[in-house]
Amino acid sequence: MSERISALIDRLSQVLPNIGENSCRLIHGRGKTLSGLEQICVDWHAPLLIVSLFEAIEEPEIEQLCVYLTTLQNNPLVQSVVVHHRYRREDAWQWLFGSEHAGFFAHRNGLRFGLEVGRQQNVGFFLDMEPGRQWLEQISAGKRVLNLFSYTCAFSVVALAAGAEKVVNVDMSSRALSRGRDNHRLNGQDTANVVFLAENILKSWGRIRKQGPFDVIIIDPPSFQKGSFVAERDYAKVIRRIPELACETCEILACLNAPELTEAYLPGLITETLPELKLQGRLAIHPDFPEQSPNHGLKLFHYQYANTGKSES
User: Nearest Cα to 30, choosing from 80, 81, 86?
Assistant: First the structure.
């Protein structure tokens, strides 16, 4: 057996006995803290185990890995296992056992979020964003929340569960927003005070502005999305809009998932663009996602804005 597969099996043998109902990352090789496993991640969404390979490995190693993973059928908690070959464009999902047509969910402290497994590269719920969800959970009660680049609206579900007065979700993908509605329904939440706006944020702000002002603003864009958003080009455009969206005092979560941009990049950009924003700190990286370098992985910054006057633009 190869050293890499042996190391992976040893690591899984250590963490699998501790799995529970909540979704989590079991192995975060991409953080480069696990020698030999740098291109491998393993996620748990009960009862599903997803093994993600970010680069091709030798066929004998794939066979060794699959033989071991198939033995997990003996674990009563693990009912499905899939290997996700993320470097492939075709046939990227390799089911080892369990039904690929079953409904799978991310689980978080009693909340559920629908997953799309075996279709697209991202399943619809980002585990590394947990520090942001915890932050939002602590401040949402009675607040009006603007969720920019909302994707499948996980922030919205968490905010509403924590007592938010209103949440406005904005994403250019109507399909993602539809999945967001489903996530609210899945948790039995009344969406009377939840708004879903299919908007290209860089082109249209009028409908968003009419829903405000907001006590909390979340900015969680893709680092690069062809035809819509490029962080280095477009992030400042979003920051400039804050004065016309914010309440007298507004809490802001500014997110950036771009390994090529340093930890200092976003704070520097915000200082240049809107110096009235005061940095409260960077949220701690979740323990499931250890990183060798602070420049890699997800960067989450908490800012506060004291709004002294509304923009007329």
Answer: 86
Residues in Cβ contact with 35 at an 8 Å cutoff, skipping those fewer than 6 apart: 7
Burial of 86 from C-beta contacts in 10 A (0-12 / 13-18 / 19+): middle
State how beta strands 166-171 and 144-148 pair: parallel
Evaluate whether 216 touches 144 at the Cβ level (below 8 Å).
yes
Interior/surface letters 269-298, b for 16+ CB within 10 angstroms, e for the rest:
bbeeebeebeeeebbebbebbebeeeebbb
Q: Which residues pair with 256 in a beta bridge?
A: 299
> Quick check: helix, strand or coil at residue 164?
coil
SS (H, E, C) 114-134: EECCCCCCCCCCCHHHHHHHH
Both tokens of 56, joined, read 């091709």
- Residue 175 CB neighbour total at 10 angstroms: 10
Per residue in 125-162, pLDDT (tens digit) is 999 999 999 999 999 999 999 999 999 999 999 999 99
Question: Do 69 and 84 contact (CB within 8 A), yes or no?
Answer: no
Q: What are the structure tokens assigned to 236, written together? A: 């400042």
pTM > 0.70: yes
E strand residue ranges, 22-108 = 24-28, 40-45, 48-53, 80-85, 93-97, 104-108
Distance CA 216, CA 214 (A): 6
Those residues with Cβ within 8 angstroms of residue 247's Cβ, 6 or more apart along the chain or in another chain = 144, 212, 213, 214, 215, 307
What gap in Å lies between CA 17 and CA 279, rounded to an integer? 40
In this structure, what token pair is assigned to residue 239? 């920051």
What are the Cα distances from residue 79, in Å, to 20, 47, 104, 112?
13, 5, 11, 18
Is 39 buried (19+), middle (13-18) or exposed (0-12) by CB count in 10 A?
A: middle
Q: What is the pLDDT of residues 196-205, one digit of tens each?
A: 999 999 888 9
Phi, psi of 286 (to 5 degrees): -65, 140
